[in-house]
Amino acid sequence: MDVLSVRNVYEDAERAKDKKAPIGADVTIENFTDxxxxxxxxxxxxxxxxxxTKKDLLKVxxxxxxxxxxxxxxxxxxxxxxxxxxxxxxVEVMNIGVALDKYKWLEDYIWNVxxxxxxxxxxxxxxxEQKDGINSGYFVRSLPGTREVxxxxxxMFIGEEGIMQTAHNVIIAEENSELHxxxxxxxxxxxxxxxxxxxSEMYLKPGAKITFTMVHxxxxxxxxxxxTGVKLMDNSTYINNYILxxxxxxxxxxxxxxxxxxxxxxxxxxxQGGKKDSIIDVGSRVLLxxxxxxxxxxxxxxxQDESKIYSRGHLAGTVPEVKGHLECHGLVLDDDSFIYAxxxxxxxxxxxxxxxxxxxxxxxxxxxxxxxxxxxxEEDAESMIVRGFLNMDITGLPDELAEQTxxxxxxxxxxx
Amino acid sequence: xxLEIENLAVEVAGKKVLKNINLSIGEGETHVLLGPNGAGKSxxxxxxxxxxxxxxxxxxxxxxxxxxxxxxxxxxxQLGIGVSxxxxxxxxxxxxxxxxxxxxxxxxxxxxxxxxxELADQLKFSDEFLDRDVNYxxxxxxxxxxxxxxxxxxxxxxxxxxxxxxxxxxxNVELIASEIGTLLDKDxxxxxxxxxxxxxxxxxxxxxxxxxxxxxxxxxxxxxxSGNPTEILEDIRKNGFNGCVECAQCL
Lengths: 416, 251
What we know:
The structure holds two protein chains of two kinds. Chain A is of the alpha/beta class. Chain A has helices at 2-15, 51-59, 96-102, 120-132, 365-372, 378-390, 399-414; strands at 33-34, 71-76, 79-84, 91-95, 138-142, 152-158, 163-173, 178-187, 193-204, 209-217, 221-232, 237-244, 250-253, 256-259, 265-274, 279-288, 294-303, 308-317, 323-332, 338-347, 353-361. Chain A has two domains: 2-364, no CATH class; 365-416, no CATH class. In chain A, strand 2 and strand 3 form a beta hairpin. By secondary structure, chain B is α/β, with parallel strands linked by helices. Chain B has a domain at 3-89 and 159-246: P-loop containing nucleotide triphosphate hydrolases (Rossmann fold, 3-Layer(aba) Sandwich), CATH 3.40.50.300. Chain B contains eight helices and ten strands. The two termini of chain B are 19 Å apart.
């Protein structure tokens, strides 16, 4: 089976290497250079990073003091320069290449919930693995029956101009375990142009729970194409929080959760702030494939300057007795800004319940007037309303993490 | 005079709503604005407050001797004007606590000051309530009490109240009236009152609890009658607002 699947991945990827993604601007991959694996030396301690990098990491929720963390992983360009796997007995954190050597069974999880031939970006990642042996990315696993409330932090950092960074991450929450991740992606201050492709595959065994909070802070000319698939088994819960409030060139992602287990539940919450001429295309998809499965997609988008935001959501119920709700709210701040909200509900079975609400508009004049009548200037009133609008209550995190996450959101929306 | 409105005409969306309004309110005075629905009472309030939709096409508004006709709302409020709205909007993600800090000129990073906490307690708000998004899912009474609490944080020199008692149950009307009294220096002897106010009231019920020095009746965008509040109310109760149209001599 192993040999066959390896060859299939290679062949599938080879066939798809020029396949455009169904949505999002087409990026010419050839404009970016491939970095060699592990070109950068490992560091012994996150504290060894320079001050600016530490600051960049902190902005995306990665704490170099590793306070209140259960593990750390840092990839710079194509090099895994730091891993801390010694902080918790409940979770394992390692480079995906190391994990593949250690666990033969991991092959079964690779390219399973994200397909190598999905588009040219997944194909490129797969081909680099298959042809060049570039196994970059992280492997995080929570052991059966464990509950680690402190999060694992993982960071993808681009430090070299003009490169294409690829990563292939696998996250597994074993039966009845709870796992929390904070992942941040950022670019160095001197980077103007680069590309990032991150393939993430997540598996939730029966009764497991994963919360995955991701903060992006890219540079203005960076092309970003994350590809995420999540497989949920019986009674498992997946909570995805995504925050982007800084400019980017184009970003397109459409993470998909497959609720294949009975009573499984997937929640996607996202905060998108479009600035300058960013083109942000973020969706969330939940396929409700088993009895009692539930899906929720909640997004808040604010578009300013000449940014364009495509805010998508797709719920598909394929069996009876499933429930889904989609909520998409957008604020358009300038005449040159743009929001396109695409909420989709798809029901292919009777006796299921799905709903959506979407509202896109400008800031309410009544709200501005109300705040100015308290002595707040119109400009400050507007930014208060925008911050309040974006600052949604994130649900489903343990208390310890909820506060930290709230701080991360506060920090991200502060600049809006 | 604290507030002087001269010969004011106001348009909203191209339609003339107020005509030839003259109104002066001195330091320490409380005036009442009466009138049927649609007469322009709220328009006059919001024009004094300076909301952009209300275009002054004639006349002027002076506050503390300064012409404020062209000032923004925030600038007027900073000069010492405050208002409680009848039906304020709810704002997601903006808490009562945040507003109280801004209104009482506190640093946002500090804890709410003890004076404000005490006032919140007086107005029957729990500490948790202060973290709620302002007006979001508030009951009618909670909206009114929150408006009054915010004014107590500001302590304006001139406060306008738009129907402060509507939708409030009897026992809370007295509470609200007593706080309005604080905002209008009612606890001080008449001669030494500094703060002034203008109350919009439809039925005048609040006047059983808050004393007023003068009443004005606004009908069809014109002040048709000004005078002693008790007498005017008596008259309206007997003859309706039509009586005021006919009674031009009480001007």
